[in-house]
């Protein structure tokens, strides 16, 4: 669909109404009053949404002003489509009363008498031009498809029969110069019909294993395709002319696919699918190479880096692999490499002109980003895995900083943790070097029943030098910031929300705060000259702290309905914001200074395990096995 200004837009169904401009990447949400949008059209120079409320009315809503246009349309409505009749926009509706009606959109009044003929609910409507006249194609629970002359208010030809259960979805398009209708049914099939001749084309398209609820059409490299969504939680793409599926089913919707829409973005056809059960919207690139492979298990960490060829994202998955992705075209760079188990944390850096990534899993690894080859294994924590990785420059030298749960109590009563520092000089291209590069360790453990933070040189035994008391036994997250030109490690420890900031040059602990639950992620940044830390909590809230004063900034970040797993700090439209993602399958943006949510949340089909922002303002979101890229400020790029 095209707006009056020529932009591509899509509309999705759901309790929270969405209109998403795919070019400007703006999300708009309407009042959460149980409204479902059904169609979008131009009313003069205005883009309007026509939607049906649970109260049984249809409202026309101006997208730009967020205001209703004209009186509500009342009646029978279960389905709706829009077209132009004699130069004015009209809505064609199908209803529970078995009729089809035509409405003047601007005036909100019916045109002519109801169109009768169906013997059960009319669940689907589409409109098109047939030999210069506006026609409507409708699908019904009576298992038939009918064609109507909208201007004359009469049926054209006989009902189209063939489906054996309710017809749930209809789409229309031109195929080799003739108008065809594509229908989806509770009989699990998709059918193609010649509208002018009133006959089926080819055999039913089979493959879905439950009801087909949604159908849309698009041009894919010059050929007409149908995109269908089903109760079997899959999306399928079909070659309409040849009557065959294209590629494998698209999976990952995690619910009944109740709506499908298509659009063209930057010359690429995309499908937008909707899951009404979970109010989730997903975008699919229909030109994506079906043979391209990615992670085969959930993506658990992401970091970004700048190579000579452009920015890349580095991801690790539960499948034990690490992959590098070109952010310009979304393609994988080189082969995936396997580390030592699952790398649950990543950090990128440039060491002596070479871009590298540090991985934290069973061991701490150093990899060359340009070749994907291991530079060296740095070592491991005493016992247990690595939960967090960061990179910092201390006294002019680069170091990797890792946090883990080392289980130092030999009696097994405590899960104690440590933060370790690893030098990052050049090393042999392969092989292990256990412990040789370790500079020092901050051990977070128990000493005669009390929690302490202490520094221990690993090369020799020295008395433990107490820095600060704390109740913590393992490291859950860490990040590095610069405060007054000094590197500061922000450490989240244990199950009590303890937060520590440690000067990496003097080892002194700085005043800092406390969260009310586990802290799952920490991010640092310098915003308007002020160093800050943002944290993500197990209690579904976040917080921002001023690292200079140790004071909290603004209000807690409240809005998520499940634990927050990832946090980052960036700038959107010249405003500093915090980006959070969590188990409620949403990404949210927050004003860094006030703690207020900025705009509506982005919804995904799976929980958000990791996310990152680039220096160019792009947002990378990892959900399930999928990686989605959003461009926020660029006028010519969008989610992909």
Structural topology:
Blueprint (H helix, E strand, L loop, with lengths): L8 E4 L5 E4 L4 E4 L5 E9 L2 E8 L3 E6 L4 E8 L2 E9 L2 E8 L4 E5 L4 E2 L11 E9 L2 E8 L4 E5 L4 E2 L11 E9 L2 E8 L4 E5 L4 E2 L11 E9 L2 E8 L4 E5 L4 E2 L13 E7 L2 E8 L4 E6 L13 E9 L2 E8 L3 E6 L10 E2 L6 E7 L2 E7 L3 E5 L5 E6 L6 E9 L2 E9 L11 E7 L14 E10 L2 E8 L7 E5 L5 E9 L2 E8 L4 E6 L5 E2 L8 E9 L2 E8 L3 E6 L5 E7 L5 E9 L2 E8 L3 E6 L10 E2 L4 E6 L4 E6 L2 E6 L9
Antiparallel strand pairs: 1-2, 2-3, 4-5, 5-6, 6-7, 8-9, 9-10, 10-11, 12-13, 13-14, 14-15, 16-17, 17-18, 18-19, 20-21, 21-22, 22-23, 24-25, 25-26, 27-28, 28-29, 29-30, 31-32, 32-33, 33-34, 35-36, 36-37, 37-38, 38-39, 39-40, 41-42, 42-43, 43-44, 45-46, 46-47, 47-48, 49-50, 50-51, 51-52, 53-54, ...
């Amino acid at each position: 669909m095209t707006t009056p200004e020529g932009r591509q837009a899509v509309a999705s169904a759901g309790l929270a109404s969405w209109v998403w401009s795919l070019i400007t990447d703006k999300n708009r949400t309407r009042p959460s009053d149980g409204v479902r949008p059904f169609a979008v059209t131009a009313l003069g120079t205005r883009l309007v949404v026509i939607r049906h409320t649970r109260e049984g009315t249809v409202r026309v809503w101006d997208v730009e002003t967020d205001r209703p246009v004209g009186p509500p349309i009342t009646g029978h409505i279960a389905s709706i489509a829009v077209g132009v009749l004699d130069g004015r926009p009209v809505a064609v509706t199908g209803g529970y009363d078995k009729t089809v009606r035509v409405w003047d959109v601007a005036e909100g009044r019916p045109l002519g008498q109801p169109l009768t003929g169906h013997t059960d609910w009319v669940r689907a409507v589409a409109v098109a031009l047939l030999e210069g006249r506006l026609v409507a194609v409708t699908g019904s629970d009576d298992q038939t498809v009918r064609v109507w002359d909208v201007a004359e208010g009469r049926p054209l030809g006989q009902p189209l029969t063939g489906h054996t259960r309710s017809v749930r979805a209809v789409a229309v398009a031109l195929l080799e110069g003739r108008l065809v209708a594509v229908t989806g049914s509770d009989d699990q099939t998709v059918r193609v019909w010649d509208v002018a001749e009133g006959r089926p084309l080819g055999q039913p398209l089979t493959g879905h294993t439950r009801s087909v609820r949604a159908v849309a059409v698009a041009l894919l490299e010059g050929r007409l395709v149908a995109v269908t969504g089903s109760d079997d939680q899959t999306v399928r793409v079909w070659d309409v002319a040849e009557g065959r599926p294209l590629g494998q089913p698209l999976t990952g919707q995690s619910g009944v696919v109740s709506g499908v829409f298509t659009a063209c973005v930057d010359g690429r056809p995309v499908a937008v699918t909707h899951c009404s059960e979970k109010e989730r919207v997903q975008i699919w690139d229909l030109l994506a190479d079906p043979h391209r492979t990615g992670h085969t298990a959930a993506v658990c960490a992401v970091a970004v880096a700048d190579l000579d060829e452009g920015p890349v994202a580095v991801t690790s998955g539960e499948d034990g692999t690490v992959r590098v992705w070109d952010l310009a075209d979304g393609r994988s760079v080189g082969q995936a490499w396997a580390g030592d188990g699952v790398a649950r944390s990543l950090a990128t850096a440039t060491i002596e002109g070479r871009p590298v990534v540090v991985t934290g899993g069973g061991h701490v690894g150093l990899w060359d980003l340009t070749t994907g080859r291991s530079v060296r294994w740095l070592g491991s924590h005493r016992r247990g895995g690595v939960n967090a990785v960061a990179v910092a420059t201390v006294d002019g030298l680069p170091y990797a900083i890792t946090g883990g749960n080392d289980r130092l109590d030999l009696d097994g009563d405590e899960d104690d943790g440590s933060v370790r520092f690893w030098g990052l000089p050049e090393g042999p291209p392969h092989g292990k070097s256990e412990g040789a590069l370790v500079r020092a360790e901050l051990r977070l453990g128990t000493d005669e029943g009390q929690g302490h933070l202490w520094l221990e040189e690993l090369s020799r035994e020295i008395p433990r030098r107490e820095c600060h008391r704390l109740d913590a036994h393992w490291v859950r997250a860490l990040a590095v910031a610069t405060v007054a030109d000094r590197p500061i490690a922000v450490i989240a420890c244990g199950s009590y929300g303890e937060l520590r900031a440690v000067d990496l040059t003097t080892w002194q602990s700085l005043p800092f705060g406390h969260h009310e639950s586990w802290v799952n992620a920490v991010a640092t940044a310098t915003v308007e000259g002020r160093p800050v830390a943002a944290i993500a909590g197990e209690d579904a809230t976040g917080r921002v702290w001023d690292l200079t004063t140790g004071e909290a900034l603004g209000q807690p970040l409240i809005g998520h309905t499940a634990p927050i797993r990832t946090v980052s700090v960036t700038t959107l439209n010249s405003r500093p914001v915090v980006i959070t993602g969590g188990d409620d399958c949403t990404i949210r943006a927050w004003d860094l200074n006030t703690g207020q949510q900025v705009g509506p949340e982005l919804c995904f089909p799976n929980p958000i395990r990791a996310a990152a922002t680039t220096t160019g303002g792009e947002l990378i979101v990892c959900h399930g096995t999928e990686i989605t890229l959003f461009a926020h400020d660029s006028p010519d790029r969008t989610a992909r």
